[in-house]
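Got a spare moment? Tell me how you read both lines of this record:
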Amino acid sequence: MTEVVVYTQPNCQPCKATLRRFNTAGIEVKEVAADDYRPLLKAMGHMTAPVVMTGEKHWSGYRPDLIDETINTRRNSNG
């Protein structure tokens, strides 16, 4: 299964909430500093943190609906 990568900024509450939601569900994520990838993220149309990438799907901002969709997809594919 494709790794979940979350690009974060320091002191970003939406970033913390995103990470917490994945962690609470037991989904392992790779946290990466968004500043190190700013040109790539901008080229993909993302202007706010966090940026979540789950393979071909990606989004920015705190999106509980998409986080839950990712969690459910992973649980269903593992069970």
The first strand starts at residue 4 and ends at 8. The mean pLDDT is 94. The chain has one domain: 4-78. The longest helix spans residues 64-78.
